[in-house]
Amino acid sequence: METPLAVVDTTPLIDHHCHGVLGGELDRAAFEARLTEAPVAAPGTSLFDTAVGFAVRRWCAPVLDLPAHASPDAYLERRAELGADEVNRRLIGAAGVEVFLVDAGLPGELVDPSAFGGRSLDVLRLERLAELVVGEGTAAGFPDRVRSALERSRSVAAKSIAAYRVGLDLDPARPSDAEVARAASRWSASGSGRCADPVLSRFLVWEALERGLPVQFHVGYGDSDLDLHRADPALLTPLLRAVQPLGVPVLLLHNYPFHRTAGYLAQVFPHVHADLGLATHGVGDRAAAVLAEALELVPFGKFLYSSDACALAELHHLGALLFRRGLSEVLRGKLTSGALSDEDALRITRMMSGGNARRVYRID
Ligand SMILES: [Zn+2]
């Protein structure tokens, strides 16, 4: 691969969807468990033998003063020697991200990435909000408790994990308060702590959008909790159509392997936007190819950068680095073929690196 175009390399990024990092030391099993969407490697194999595992050895090792392609054990030994704080500072600092939009609604102790560079803004996880307020009163009062929590929120966006909980084939109609109260009552009676009812998923999305809060949807690629065929963004079409008159942005996250479908939806619906999220580091050295596919149809003003990095600072680092290398390669191809002028390449870089996120989330 050639070096990134200078402008792509030096333009600060806005990471519009990510999570915190672990502050403690990690042994090999704990590191591998967070490297991909698999919790554990198959017996006799290593999760370092994946596209992202090779990318860690190629690109992160030199940030820790090791030669490129250092062995996994040498890498983890050096990581432990430097300590988590220094590793996080080096890897996140070198990512060149000026603003992180952080979904802090995951379980476990994670340190906000802005502790190591840049600043962060909060993204409100809708199912988590419902789980917090459901037990605070009656089922009949649940809709109002959600509304007042949304009114009090200082978050710049909301996030729905309906794909994980109920699938994206949601009825587009806005549910009535009576329907929502019945669903909350069923949920309370079930004894489950998890918000996993399609009526509640729809309600949360409608309420957030009606308050002008952009809504991010998890789409496609995720861990084995997810039924991938129910996380196809095409399933969301009726709901996207129904909420279009609100004119509030909807962001389709990750999307792989449906990134072309997401690009299509972003083209035909003015309020819909897309990214590649964790697929950028997940596919490692194929990032440029996948990014090229994601950009086939999507208007360039509707594609955003995100890492969806979680737990490992390596993923923050690789998300930014592989996005920049991928974008450079795509733009270089278009410049070489004469599809773009230098000025157009510069504008696209500014839009996708941060300008689109700044407009969508009203970041000043
Ligand atoms: Zn995420």
Tell me about this structure.
Helix 5 (84-93) packs parallel to helix 15 and helix 14 packs across helix 15 (313-336). This protein is an alpha/beta fold. The chain has helices spanning 6-10, 28-33, 51-60, 72-82, 84-93, 126-133, 142-152, 162-165, 177-190, 198-210, 237-243, 259-268, 279-282, 287-294, 313-336, 342-360, and strands at 13-18, 97-103, 119-125, 157-160, 215-219, 250-254, 272-274. Helix content is 45%, strand content 10%. It has a seven-stranded parallel sheet. It has 16 helices and seven strands. Helix 11 (237-243) links the parallel strand 5 and strand 6.
- Write down the overall mean pLDDT: 96
Uncertain segments are none
User: If helices are DSSP runs of H or I spanning 4 or more residues, what is the number of helices?
Assistant: 16
| Oligomeric state of the chains present here | single chain
Helix content: 40-55%
Report how far apart the termini are: 35 Å
Cross-sheet strand order for the largest sheet: 1-2-3-4-5-6-7
User: Radius of gyration over alpha carbons?
Assistant: 20 Å
Write down the secondary-structure element order. HEHHHHEEHHEHHHEHEHEHHHH
- By secondary-structure content and strand pairing, the structural class works out as alpha/beta
Q: Biggest β-sheet: count, sense, barrel?
A: 7 strands, parallel
Percent of residues in beta strands?
5-15%
**Outline type:** globular
Number of strands: 7
Ligands present: zinc ion
